Amino acid sequence: MKKIVYGIVLVILFAIAGGTYYVFTNLNSLVEAAIEKYGSEATQTSVLVDGVNIDLTSGAGAISGLTVANPEGFTMPYAFSLGEIRTGIDLQSLQEEPYIIDEIAVLAPQVFVEINEANKTNLNELKKNLTAGSAATTQDKKSQPAAKGSTDEPRLIIRRVIFADGTIQARVAALKDKEYTLKLPGMDMSNLGGNKGATATELASEILKRLTDRASEIIKKDIIDAELNKLKDKAQVMVDEEKAKLKAQADAKQEEEKQKAKDKLKNMFSQ
Question: Of the residues 1, 21, 67, 166, which has the fewest C-beta atoms closer than 10 A?
Fold first, then answer.
């Protein structure tokens, strides 16, 4: 399963892009509204934020309580719930592209993985929503004449992205809705965008790939492989028990035949 958390990445980048765009207004409520509006449009689910705090003097920002709801067809309330996102923006870089984000630190992220009765995974469906939305936006841009003064998607450099103290909550319908709580190992990514920078979409794809690979390893090792090993162990016990049963029956049959032979010989000599 090489699909994990496109939503979390894109929403974070929406948050940063929103923070950069509105930073000069110093209106945290506008940033919050932008994250919820564009995040919800991108994921086609409800994106909510508890609060935003941007410090213009230091270029630092904090986003708390950001949640991304699950797509339709899943029972868990969220696909992601982020405790806190801290950002550091290089204010000097805002004079020209590529804009530089010194650091994005995602603290205590929760990733909710759900495989429903139709064998669909919520994060895969969320990714489809994001892909569909991106394609629609691209098509709209192609079909409409460029507005005066409009520019292409700005290029960004992210010097460092950190995910710390995360957890994965998983539920699998095929396993009688069994729930799992797994640790999401910390991740530290650096120099995203290279020297020339990359668009938010390109950066999201890169971060997505790394996160999905890591999450896939965890899900495979701690859930899929673990459950398969349990089934193998259970099957082996049943095989061993059946072998022991057959051996006991064979031994009993052999003893019975031996006893019959002894009885026959005894009768022969007694005549």
Answer: 21
pLDDT of residue 142: 53
Looking at residue 74, its pLDDT comes to: 93
Torsion of CA 188, 193, 199, 201, to 10 degrees: -40
**For residue 160, what pLDDT is reported?**
93
What is the reported pLDDT for 22? 43
More confident call, 3 vs 75: 75
CA distance readout (Å), 180 to 66, 69, 108, 111, 223: 22, 19, 17, 12, 8
Q: 221 is written with which tokens?
A: 């090792």
Within a domain: residue 260? no
> Is residue 139 in a domain?
yes
Question: What confidence category does residue 263 fall into, taking pLDDT thresholds of 50, 70 and 90?
Answer: low
Residue 239 lies in a domain: no
Look-up: residue for tokens 């004079």?
Answer: 95
Higher pLDDT, 258 or 19: 258
Q: Which domain holds residue 160?
A: 6-219
Amino acid at 20: T
Question: What amino acid occupies position 255?
Answer: E
How many domains are there within the chain? 1
Residue 70 identity: N
Residue 96, CB-side half-sphere exposure with 13 Å CA sphere? 1
154 contacts 166 by C-beta, under 8 angstroms: no
Domain membership of residue 159 (yes or no) is yes
Give, as one character, the DSSP assignment of residue 145: P
Rg of the Cα trace of the chain? 29
Cβ atoms of 49 and 63 within 8 Å: the answer is: yes
